[in-house]
Specification:
The structure is a single chain. It is built from 9 helices and 15 strands. By secondary structure, the protein is α+β, with helices and mostly antiparallel strands. It folds into 2 domains: 175 residues, no CATH class; 101 residues, no CATH class. A 6-stranded mixed beta sheet has the order 5-6-4-3-7-8. A 4-stranded antiparallel beta sheet has the order 9-10-11-12. A 3-stranded antiparallel beta sheet has the order 13-15-14. A hairpin with a 5-residue loop joins strand 7 and strand 8. Helix 1 packs across helix 2.
Length: 289
C-alpha cells in the first residue's frame, strides 16, 4: 500500500505478483492480526488519555480490509501487506483521529516480507481506525455493511472495491462483498454432535467425540484421548467449503503440521458434517452445498 497522509487513506499499490504472497490465510493468522490491533489500541490509549476517555469503550469491531482481505476470499489476489481497521461507534462531540496509521511487523515469515519493510520478519501490518454511525437496531455486520454501501466517505468507497473480513468479533466472517456466501459449515454443528461416535476413513476405527468451546476431544476405546483445537477444525472447514475437496495431504501438510494422528481424526470429525462425503482410497473429503 501507499500512504496518502493528506486523507489518512491507504491506496492499492502497484506491487507486482512476484512481490506478493499467495499463501492461504488461516483463522489463526486472522487472530494474530486481531491481537496486533488490540495491542496497538492499548498502546495508543495509554499514551493519549484524552482519546482514551472518549473512544476506548466505543470499539465496534476490527476487520481486515482491502487486498489481503480479498485474498482471504478468493485465494488469488495475493498479499502485499495487511490493512487492519478498528471501527469505532461515532462520538457525538469528537471525531476519531482518522489520519493515524501505525505499522507493525506480522512477526511470522509465513507470508514473506513487504518489499518496503525488509527489516520486518513478516509482512507489514498497517493499523488504522475509523468512526461509523451505528443505529440502535443494528448489529456489527449490519452497521459495517451500511457504512460501506453508503459511500459517504473516501474510506467507504475504497473499502467497497475489495473485501472486508471481521477479525473481532465473529473472526473470519466476510462482511463484504455482499454476494459472498459465508461458510455454511458451522462449528456449532459439532457441538450438537458431542458424545457421538466418529470413524476413521480407511479402517472405520471408532472413537467418542466430545465437543468443547475450544476444541474436540477424541476418546479411544483404549482410554487414550486426543485434543484437536477449534481453530484447526474451523480452518479445515473453511478450506473444504472453499475448495470443495480436501485430500489427506492437504490436511497433513497444510493444517495439522504433519501430525498423523491428528490428521486422521480431523478427517473423521469432518466426515460427520452434513454434505460431506469421502473416498477411502485415496483419503479425500468432498463437500457439496
Amino acid at each position: 500500500m501507499t500512504i496518502d497522509r493528506s486523507e489518512g487513506l491507504l491506496r492499492m499499490s502497484s506491487v507486482g505478483i512476484e512481490a506478493r504472497s499467495y499463501e492461504a490465510i488461516a483463522v489463526e493468522d486472522l487472530e494474530r492480526l486481531a491481537q496486533i490491533a488490540r495491542q496497538d489500541r492499548e498502546a495508543f490509549f495509554q499514551d493519549n488519555s484524552e482519546w482514551a476517555e472518549v473512544y476506548a469503550q466505543r470499539v465496534l469491531c476490527v476487520a481486515l480490509c482491502q487486498g489481503a482481505a480479498m485474498h482471504y476470499v478468493d485465494s488469488r489476489t495475493g498479499i502485499n501487506d495487511f490493512d487492519v481497521y478498528t471501527f469505532y461507534k461515532a462520538h457525538p462531540r469528537k471525531h476519531w483521529c482518522a489520519r493515524r496509521i501505525k505499522s507493525y511487523d506480522f512477526g511470522n515469515p509465513k507470508f514473506g516480507q513487504s518489499v518496503d519493510r525488509l527489516d520486518f520478519i513478516g509482512r507489514r501490518v498497517d493499523c488504522l481506525g475509523r468512526e461509523i454511525e451505528v443505529k440502535a437496531e443494528e448489529d456489527v455486520i449490519m452497521a459495517l455493511r451500511r457504512y460501506i454501501q453508503s459511500g459517504k466517505t473516501q474510506t467507504a468507497k475504497l473499502l467497497a472495491t475489495k473485501a472486508v473480513v471481521l477479525l473481532a468479533p465473529h473472526c473470519s466472517t466476510v462482511v463484504w462483498p455482499l454476494d459472498y456466501e459465508n461458510p455454511k459449515m458451522n462449528y456449532l454443528d459439532l457441538v450438537r454432535m458431542s458424545g457421538e461416535k466418529c470413524y476413521t476413513l480407511t479402517a472405520e476405527n471408532e472413537a467418542d467425540m466430545f465437543t468443547q468451546d475450544d476444541g474436540v476431544v477424541i476418546e479411544y476405546p483404549s482410554g487414550k484421548s486426543l485434543f484437536i483445537h477449534r481453530e484447526i477444525i474451523e480452518e479445515a472447514m473453511r478450506q473444504l467449503e472453499l475448495k470443495g475437496t480436501l485430500t489427506v495431504r492437504d490436511i497433513h501438510e497444510g493444517i495439522t503440521n504433519r501430525n498423523g494422528a491428528r490428521t486422521d481424526r480431523l478427517m473423521a470429525i469432518l466426515r460427520k458434517i452434513e454434505g460431506v462425503t469421502f473416498d477411502k482410497r485415496p483419503r479425500v473429503l468432498y463437500y457439496r452445498r
